[in-house]
Amino acid sequence: MEVSVIGNPQARICRSELVYRELGFRFGSEVISGESRNRVSFRSQISKLKEIGIRCSSRSVKCEAIISDQVPFLNSTPKSRSLESVKLFVGLPLDTVSDCYNVNHMKAITAGLKALKLLGVEGIELPIFWGVVEKEAAGKYEWSGYLAVAEIVKKVGLKLHASLSFHGSKDPEIGLPDWVSKIGEAEPGLYFTDRYGNQYHDCLSFAVDDAPVLDGRTPMEVYRGFCESFKSAFSDYMGNTITGITLGMGPDGELRYPSHQHDDKFSGAGEFQCYDKYMLSALKQYAESTGNPLWGLGGPHDAPTYNQQPHSSSFFSDGGSWESQYGDFFLSWYSSLLISHADRVLSVASSAFNGSGVSVCGKLPLLHQWHKLRSQPSELTAGFYSSNGQDRYEAIAEIFAKNSCRMIIPGMDLSDEHQPPESLSSPESLLAHIKTSCKKQGVVVSGQNSSVPVPGGFERIVENLEDENAGIDLFTYQRMGARFFSPEHFHAFAVFVRNMNQFELSSQDQAGENVAESLSIGSGTGAASLQAA
Amino acid sequence: MSTFPIEPLLHHSSLRNNSKIYRGARGLLPCSLNLSSQFTSKKLHSIGRSVVGSRTSLGLRSSNHRRSVAIRASSSDTAVVETSQSDDVVFKENFSVQRIEKAEGKIYVRLKQVKEDNWELTVGCSLPGKWIIHWGVSYVGDTGSEWDQPPEDMRPPGSIAIKDYAIETPLEKSSEGDSFYEVTINLNLESSVAALNFVLKDEETGAWYQHKGRDFKVPLVDDVPDNGNLIGAKKGFGPIGQVTNIIVKPDEPGADVQEKSSSDLTKERKGLEEFYEEMPISKHVADDNSVSVTARKCPATSKNVVSIETDLPGDVTVHWGVCKNGSKKWEIPAEPYPEETSLFKNKALRTRLQRKDDGNGSFGLFSLDGNLEGLCFVLKLNENTWLNNRGEDFYVPFLTSSSLPVETEAAQVSEKTPKTNQEVSDSAFTNEIITEIRNLAIDISSHKNQKTNVKEVQVNILQEIEKLAAEAYSIFRSTTPTFSEESVLEAEVEKPEIKISSGTGSGFEILCQGFNWESHKSGRWYLELQEKADELASLGFTVLWLPPPTESVSPEGYMPKDLYNLNSRYGTIDELKDTVRKFHKVGIKVLGDAVLNHRCAHFKNQNGVWNLFGGRLNWDDRAVVADDPHFQGRGNKSSGDNFHAAPNIDHSQDFVRKDIKEWLCWMREEVGYDGWRLDFVRGFWGGYVKDYMDASKPYFAVGEYWDSLSYTYGEMDYNQDAHRQRIVDWINATSGAAGAFDVTTKGILHTALQKCEYWRLSDPKGKPPGVVGWWPSRAVTFIENHDTGSTQGHWRFPGGKEMQGYAYILTHPGTPAVFFDHIFSDYHSEIASLLSLRNRQKLHCRSVVNIDKSERDVYAAIIDEKVAMKIGPGHYDPPNGSKNWSVAVEGRDYKVWETS
């Protein structure tokens, strides 16, 4: 009776081959120890060595090692700034965790993360929604879904950057916590409101930051509780897997008023959002204190609506109300609220996460439309203003500096030439402006792309990252999902990452030969041990 | 106790931090430290001190854990360090190592009668493993060796259907203490099951176990004439001769048939008898052993004395060197050396360990200079088997007074402990990743074996990345259904219009399929076709699809054997080249029919299975996919569906791809083919096709991705998005490097025309419902080919309605293909008119179609605002407006207008 084994057990082949492989390395080190020393000296492994990850991570490091072996030889290509120092993160889908605390498309995310790890991506950005975690009742936090994601990220050997989002999202639809919405129904003053009384339900008004509107607690207290709970729930990951935290500062997490709510490609000037109860009362108080009580009854009457052209009414035109004394009064007040909101949120964050080994970040918008107009209406309606034509971003940067926070600036993929000329847009000059303001204040800038892919985006990102002046060392690419992994896009992305890692498929260099040699020493042993096995 | 689980096969670069935990020789109080990651306790336990230099080796696991341990061991990651009372001990650790060993056991098969008509078949195995029986049945009257799925009531719980021909059922221990794994199948003798076929698979190792290179086959009836005879010949039931693959009386020496009882014949199934058979099997399993190392400082001589002992059986040689000056570079120490030491190439020393008196293992003592920093070693069991410490050398540090790292290192370790513990808790997940990355590493290391350079390794990693990304893409996409169409359309827009791409040619191509299922019969098809070259050119065809040119087991050419032998039933290679030249002369490009999914073998392997190739591409069984047990491939699993009649080629193998690329380029060069028609592309990943297209740079390429449309209760569904999505997915996987036949359009036309349901021809968005509605530039529309029509007629277009089909595809976007049989038929002149209209009006694969009417009995559309068409019996006239429409072609139930 004869039974035969067919098909070789793969795992076993691997086993023996790896035995040889490791031995091969050792012998390699005997023979040409100089070269083999090199193998451990590339950039990312050193950091990995400190952290004892699971096996998988160290093994992925190995794969990466093979890729990165090329690094020294490609350094010689003249570049204005080496991109190797830039850590690349990729954002997970907004709906990574469903409002039932499940991880959506877990399998896809796992596969995706492995692909990114192999590609040499440093880490992952995970959007964590207030409306998911603290959905049911105040102080009742449910982190399980996000913890599961953190665990996957860690196992795959990637870093994690958590974005604590105190806003809602339209697509996918994620609201504020149910209990907050319930309070909001009874107390509409919680929400930003425009002059027609339309409320913006995806974010609380800055004017209630310190008002005890949430069952006797202020939103800031609630945010602080959220941060503390996050810190303790993720304590095992803080400082090792989790390397950064972004605090949501307003609509879509960005520090701004919800002045543009309709996601049109070509939008208008935007609208001032100062008509909720608390805003109006703050405005009134401010007007009275500055001796102009009549100015405190409402916002500008001659401003255009969301999608109207700035010139369609007089407020933003040259010599229009925005340049008047009233304009200065209103805009100063309006922007001061934004700045103080930024200060409150960032100090909550920095006090909560101080000493936990993570960097704290906040995100600004890149309101590049109408930037070429003198009034820069998009920025004004969103709350960026400074009297006497001074730098509109310096005060903000100062707040970031004071709280030792990093600033995330999106839109690093945008270039002027791809903007419709009629929008008078200039993402490039606005970005340069904000970067300069940050540099002046010593604020470290991290980059992001805009959420919608744009032509020439990757090239523009590389240009921005190579910019010596800004010294951007962290870039988060938004965002994983079907489009991200579609063949057209993923291919371009992979090329982008390889360029950043200076990893190219060139085989002509010496390194390749050396590696091959040291390995071939091992291969004899390997083949033999396979037979023995 | 100091335990350090090691696994030689896993590389662990971070290990060094852990393994260098030691204490200084002086200045420290003895302490005891035990860190264990195997339990979830986050506290650091301090345990009793142990006697230094204990001779007992601390084997961690009994050998019956075997293989499963290999992976579990990976989760325990912490060095457990023990320092002892005795001041002179500077290092002590116990490493566990793993050895691959051959374990022997048996497979048994038992047929038992429970009641009169109730029989049970039990299959069992005595070796540990994750056993699966992969089985199917043959029914009475089946002739071939194909399997069928067994009736539902025969499938034991836990069974999983594998495609449509087999079942997989796990073997389980009948009780915890039981050492056998088995499965029992209740045979339903009411059904017409004639025999049960199976093979065994060990999921742990991926190994298949067969019987004499064939399936195990248990015959259950004797009233089938064939079988009856055989049983008669063998006297009753029982093992039957090789001729029919049936279990035979063991003829291998040493095989042990314990028992073979025969009971009375049952009347219903004459000859069916109870039996019990055993067959020996062997399996490679990993065995755990340990190596314990103690280093002491001898105060008298200030020498370091290292003792190495192990329970590894047999001769063990220590291959070692010493370290100086802070480097781990191996150096040869000064003499004297221990006994049985030899110098190995001036780079290392080899010392054979002495056998212990009790026979269980061996040990050795090494006395070394006090000023050395450490000892490095690996173990050699025999010429071919080496053991190391999880990819690193074993390293024994000797402490000098200057370095006293115990406290700091210990602190580090304690920090790490909780983390490690967590990892243990979720080891299943980890294992999965490890396996995957390990598989990747196999690829990589197998490359190294072939001394290929780094580039290929990188390419390999990139491919792995692409595969993972493709997986992520398919899942994400399936949850965002609206995405696909838009993205495809967008991608479309981005492409420059005039560029020639291999999927589309110029965009104005019209294909002619230049053969049918009978074309091989004359033996001179190439020559016959040549004579029609002028006619085909004048009809307006721009591309001709020729039959598969290679030597083939079947005369039609779709069972290729030697790819470089281009003498086929269609003619010789010279006739082929001549034909291609002739068509080029009349301005027609020529497509070769490339069968890349499968290839027939030249030789049998040692098990008698045909899976070794000959000719110029003399691949072995690594070129065959592993997941079709009939061909015993040693490649990877198939990246697509399997075609069961021949060995499916494993395109994930580099050498295979390299050879195929070379072959395609050779065919371009030698024969002069301009592009490809790719057979059965469902069988392998589209990304490989991209690779092939990139290498062979065809002018035009089209793949046959043919699967079934969706039906509900026998009625074709209106929405065939899932079907066309699969085709679009394939095209996408090729990055658009090849187009695909628009099977969706053909299927919908079938129903629309046959049942007079013309409303089907507009999708919910008012676009054509086939691939042509989503990605027209990559859709090759057709109504018939050699498989669907001709003399095979697997899926024939509704008779008499062919011209309506042509009126549709020859006016619509996409690249139309006309079947040879239709051209040379009564439809000749009507087709000629449509072709000439298409060329005259310059309709192309990206033309814009506006559907004007899609009702029960009529479908009408206007294309590029210059051609109007209607099919169906209903009435339609193009809109009166600024345009002046005149009838261009007219026939039964169709009409086409053009603007003049």
Automatic annotation (TrEMBL), chain A:
<dbReference type="InterPro" id="IPR001554">
    <property type="entry name" value="Glyco_hydro_14"/>
</dbReference>
<keyword id="KW-0624">Polysaccharide degradation</keyword>
<protein>
    <recommendedName>
        <fullName>Beta-amylase</fullName>
        <ecNumber>3.2.1.2</ecNumber>
    </recommendedName>
</protein>
<keyword id="KW-0326">Glycosidase</keyword>
<keyword id="KW-0119">Carbohydrate metabolism</keyword>
<dbReference type="GO" id="GO:0000272">
    <property type="term" value="P:polysaccharide catabolic process"/>
</dbReference>
<dbReference type="Pfam" id="PF01373">
    <property type="entry name" value="Glyco_hydro_14"/>
</dbReference>
<comment type="similarity">
    <text>Belongs to the glycosyl hydrolase 14 family.</text>
</comment>
<dbReference type="GO" id="GO:0016161">
    <property type="term" value="F:beta-amylase activity"/>
</dbReference>
<keyword id="KW-0378">Hydrolase</keyword>
<dbReference type="InterPro" id="IPR017853">
    <property type="entry name" value="GH"/>
</dbReference>
From TrEMBL, chain B:
<keyword id="KW-0479">Metal-binding</keyword>
<dbReference type="Pfam" id="PF07821">
    <property type="entry name" value="Alpha-amyl_C2"/>
</dbReference>
<dbReference type="InterPro" id="IPR012850">
    <property type="entry name" value="A-amylase_bs_C"/>
</dbReference>
<dbReference type="Pfam" id="PF00128">
    <property type="entry name" value="Alpha-amylase"/>
</dbReference>
<dbReference type="Pfam" id="PF23166">
    <property type="entry name" value="Ig_N_CWD1"/>
</dbReference>
<dbReference type="GO" id="GO:0009507">
    <property type="term" value="C:chloroplast"/>
</dbReference>
<dbReference type="GO" id="GO:0004556">
    <property type="term" value="F:alpha-amylase activity"/>
</dbReference>
<dbReference type="GO" id="GO:0005975">
    <property type="term" value="P:carbohydrate metabolic process"/>
</dbReference>
<feature type="domain" description="Glycosyl hydrolase family 13 catalytic">
    <location>
        <begin position="509"/>
        <end position="838"/>
    </location>
</feature>
<protein>
    <recommendedName>
        <fullName>alpha-amylase</fullName>
        <ecNumber>3.2.1.1</ecNumber>
    </recommendedName>
</protein>
<dbReference type="InterPro" id="IPR017853">
    <property type="entry name" value="GH"/>
</dbReference>
<keyword id="KW-0326">Glycosidase</keyword>
<dbReference type="InterPro" id="IPR013780">
    <property type="entry name" value="Glyco_hydro_b"/>
</dbReference>
<keyword id="KW-0119">Carbohydrate metabolism</keyword>
<dbReference type="InterPro" id="IPR056301">
    <property type="entry name" value="GWD-like_N_Ig"/>
</dbReference>
<feature type="domain" description="Alpha-amylase C-terminal beta-sheet">
    <location>
        <begin position="839"/>
        <end position="899"/>
    </location>
</feature>
<dbReference type="InterPro" id="IPR006047">
    <property type="entry name" value="GH13_cat_dom"/>
</dbReference>
<keyword id="KW-0378">Hydrolase</keyword>
<dbReference type="GO" id="GO:0005509">
    <property type="term" value="F:calcium ion binding"/>
</dbReference>
<comment type="similarity">
    <text>Belongs to the glycosyl hydrolase 13 family.</text>
</comment>
